[in-house]
Amino acid sequence: MPMLHFAKPALAALVVAAALTACKSNMNIKHLPYPEPERTDVSDNYFGTVVADPYRWLEDDRSEATAAWVAAENEVTQNYLNQIPFREQIRERLTELWSYPWEGAPVKHGDYYYFYRNNGKQNQAVLYRKANLEDEAEVFLDPNTLSEDGTVALAGISFSKDGRYCAYAASASGSDWSDIYVMRTKDKQLTGDVIKWVKLSNAVWTPDEKGFYYSTFDVPESGVYSSQNQFQKVYHHTLGTPQSSDRLIHMDKEHPLRYFTASVSQDGKWLFITASEGTSGSEILYRPANGKEFKVLFPGFANDYSIIKCDKDKLYVQTNLDAPNYRVIRVDLKDPAKIEEIIPENPKNLLEFVSRPGDYLMASYLEDAQSQVYQYDWEGKLIRKVELPEIGTVSSFSGKKGETEAFYSLTNFVNPSTIYRYDLATGESTLYKQTEVKFDPSLYTTTQVFYPSKDGTKVPMFITHRKDLKLDGKNPTYLYAYGGFQQSLAPWFNPASIMFMEQGGVYCVANLRGGLEYGEEWHKAGMLDKKQNVFDDFIAAAEYLIANKYTSSEKLAIAGGSNGGLLIGACEVQRPDLYAVCLPAVGVMDMLRYHKFTIGWGWVVEYGSSEDPEQFEYLYKYSPLHNIKKGVKYPATLITTADHDDRVVPAHSFKFAAEMQYAQGGDAPILIRIDTKAGHGAGKPVSKRIDEATDVYSFLFQNTNTPYKAPQTK
Questions:
Q1: Cβ-contact 558, 538 below 8 angstroms
Q2: Contact present, 407 and 422 (Cβ < 8 Å)
Q3: Of 102, 343, 616, 687, whose CA is between 20 and 30 Å from 76?
Q4: pLDDT category of residue 122 using cuts at 50, 70 and 90
Q5: Is omega for the bond preceding 140 within 30 degrees of 0, making it cis?
Q6: Number of Cβ atoms within 10 Å of the Cβ of 219
Q7: Which residues are catalytic?
């Protein structure tokens, strides 16, 4: 364990000069002087290596000193952004592009089809319903009425088996904490059942509709948005009773750092607990629903197990057990040693997810990061390959047991979700809902390229731009990636990217190792001691775009969020010469202390821990915060975070920003945008998304010397 040495920071450490600095970017915009926060003598001794942490005091998000620093930083940032002459033009165009009405795929619960709809001007999508698809829809639940500013969002929603009840989790200001409320669907009235302080869980209904299971942690005594959460527990709530009487179903006193999620068989006979120690690797426990002791069905945590369905003592599971690209197996719970393979592993393509509309299994694969779907029966017989209407990303197929049709959505980089109706008997897809947009998608094209990384590995990348683009190296380019936690980046629609491409921009998404685009081996090649592969993949993507005349170092912006924020921070400090603009969002920047906050311990399986001497060595080598060098000319940087982010606490971004400003040896601005009443990203209202995109792209255009021009709209 590292030895810690503390020094108390003085509140008077923040000094802001009265005059503007001479620091310039193009168009003669100047920024105010950065705050000068106290650099304390805090340090940690990691196995003989002393590591300074001069801004440790910024980890205390409740202190007056931190609040003063945040206010000073936001003043510097907003003053700079306010000077960008075309900022309001960008806001106007983003508002136009974002204000398209859209509708989600319908899902049937009881006697109604439920679906989300946004009229194009609402902060949160509204849940509608109708008894027949041809009927007029009625509002069932409008989350915009839960707060005046749209910052309360639905964190999850769950219907009971026959659709009599709906349990919805409401989260405020983007926090992972939520409260669960129960509605009767018949009259849309609340039952009075309220479950407070739920985290990372939805309601899991029992088939008799008398109650549900949920998971949560103890309420933190202090530091609600930063304190470490331990000992997650599973409870059962009976409708009509207070939360204080909820029955504890499962906890593990010997392992405080594990997640637990309940699930129930369709007949209510079996109860399951899926346990994990992080973001990958799990085990499944099971018992009769009326039993007392859980048994281990699949031991953890070397493989992943995801329950698809349990019916008549048969459990269907999607797993990478002996199958890096995943397969579907069936287990007889009366004879657990009996395992049958239902859908075998595809050696070339990842089985991303399995949905179960009607009486079928729909297996959705990623083939070079694009969706392809195959239809099977429950014995594993292939019925057909689904002929998708266009290339893109498919959502799960909705449809209850016994139904003859299903619905799915399809999207890509230049088309928002289009809803299709799928005939399960014939395999025919017909258009159900087409989204109307305020631009011409036919003007754009997407190409997939495969470029070599540092070690020769071929990495895929999507490149989207106007068809009339000239490859002259002068195009502003936005390169985005994630690279971790088994997350695959398939094509998706983002209104801000359309605005960017209207200005001659090139929008790129690289499918780095660490994701799951090519199965578990692709993931493992970018985790733990192999994390540097991810950064090498991304740097190679930037070099490819420059070498092939899409852009230049003076026009290239790189962006990513969360683990992708770590990616941007690491690549910025490793290759500051390669980019004009860096846009790290809600990033994990302190790789030596991330596990000490909220649920950061769950990422140890992906990153490793500084409390392990071998893992400390490679974490320290790439940790963005610890590899900033004073006097280096860093690119223009806009760091974004939020005060209610209890996933990646804002202290990561605070410390990174303070250290970067202290070290900056060039003239490019290093700014941090700290949002209020916002979190890690989920549930963020449209108005805040537009505000953030306005600031990010204004900063990008300003620092790539790209003047904004009014576009020709459709």
A1: yes
A2: yes
A3: 687
A4: confident
A5: no
A6: 10
A7: 562, 680
Q: Residue 421 contacts by C-beta under 8 Å, 6 or more apart in sequence?
A: 405, 406, 407, 429, 430, 431, 432
Q: 648: pLDDT confidence band, cut at 50, 70 and 90? A: low
Report the distance separating Cα 531 and Cα 483, nearest Å.
Answer: 9
Q: Vertex 664, ends 537 and 566: CA angle to 5°?
A: 30
Residue 462 · residue 447 · CB < 8 Å: yes
Q: Which amino acid type is present at position 710? A: A
| 200 has pLDDT over 80 | no
Residue type, 171: S
Structural element, H or E, at residue 635? none
Q: What are phi and psi of 615, to 5 degrees?
A: -70, -35
Beta strands in 401-485 (DSSP E): 405-412, 415-423, 429-433, 444-452, 458-466, 477-480
% the chain with pLDDT above 90: 73
pTM of the model: 0.85
Report d(CA 639, CA 629) in Å as an integer.
18
Q: Could you give phi then psi for residue 499, rounded to 5 degrees?
A: -55, -40
> Which long-range contacts does 365-373 make (Cβ < 8 Å, 24+ apart)?
366/488, 366/490, 366/516, 366/517, 366/518, 368/448, 368/460, 368/517, 369/448, 369/460, 369/462, 369/488, 369/489, 369/490, 369/491, 369/511, 369/517, 370/448, 370/490, 370/491, 371/410, 371/490, 373/397
Q: What is the pLDDT of residues 654-669, one digit of tens each?
A: 999 999 999 999 999 9
* DSSP characters over 91-151: HHHHHHHH---EEPPPEEETTEEEEEEE-SS-SSPEEEEESSTTSPPEEEE-GGGG-SSS-
Report d(CA 316, CA 158) in Å as an integer: 21
Give the list of residues 6+ apart from residue 121 with CB closer than 8 angstroms, or none. 99
Structure tokens at 384: 């057909």
Which residue's structure tokens are 């990217």? 497
Tokens representing 4 are: 């810690």
pLDDT attached to residue 318 = 97
CA 387, 390, 393, 399 torsion-angle sign: negative
Closest CA relative to residue 513, chosen from 492, 529, 535 = 535
